[in-house]
Amino acid sequence: MSIRRMIVVVAALTVVGGSCSEPGSDGEASPPGSASSPGASPSSPGAPSSPGAPSSLSPGTSSPSSPAAQPGPVTPSAVEEIVTGLAAPWSIAFVPGSDGQALVTQRDEGTIVLVDTTGAVTPVGAVPGVEGTGEGGLLGLAFDPASPADLYIYATMGSQNVVQRTTYASGALGSFEVVLDGIPAGTRHDGGRLAFGPDGMLYISTGESGNADDAQDLGSLGGKILRITPDGSVPDDNPFDGSPIWSYGHRNVEGLAFDDEGRLWASEFGDRDADELNLIVAGANYGWPFVEGVGGAPDYVDPVVEWRPTSESSPSGIAYVRDTIFVAALRGERLWQVPLSSGGDAGEPAAFVADYGRLRDAVVAPDGTLWVLTNNTDGRGDPRTGDDRILRLTLTP
Hints:
mainly beta, 5-stranded antiparallel β-sheet, 28 strands
């Protein structure tokens, strides 16, 4: 049964403070801190309401918004729990051509389930060979828009992370083939997000698996964003000849999203100082392990948004819709809303959905709502009855 609530809004105040983050972790629960974007002005989110209170949409929003309805930025106005009982879920991918059905990976079990807006959870199957501990396991998935039956999966398989391709049809998975392997794996910092770009290429986020030097090593696939063709070959226009590396100097990227102008955004876990939202440039160095957050060093690209301390965020999946990026925060236990300008600048982040615990993924649904995945059963959260959940957020205007 769906439960609808008014969004609980937390203002994002700019505060300078030290970090209480534990290095090498994607985050434990902790109190709020600060978030900032260079040159931003404070946002003015709406008033909070009591958790559990029934909600109504804002005036004039009797149905979910459409991504093309009007320019953004957009703000969440109501939230529904539409799916419960998931086990350490990690990624959501909507089934092409379906009426709101989506596949969800369950990290520790190595399984995929089919969910829908009625709350039904239907097993699809296990991914063979998944073998991961800690932050490893069955992670990201994405459908190829140009070949909608093709499903791509990122998973830990022992000492490496592997991208595989299969098919999905009539509720079943097909055979699996390796598209890319050799990505370093560990108990932490395994990356794992997949996203197809408007150029038809597959973008892959990786972590440095706890080996910080890998992030600067162009001979390693760890600590990078990778770009390959759907069949796994290296595009001729990649910045490094014969290499799938698109950008480097990353610690652990778990969020990828393209905006309306085709720009790639990525969320990145910091160590003790700052988490990041980055605008990705081909061939660029994002500084880890030499810089964390905004450093101003000429050899490295600074983030567009940083959260200090890292207890603020621990950002995982991200979604773009109408001049807005939404960031699912694990340790921060909230959904960050980041308004964007056409020039790539960001306004002050504002926090929403602060009463559901850890958040792992955020995905725009075909009807224009935002689906958000909680992550309290992954061994680092505080599970409550019904966890883990998928929340559906109505966006306004």
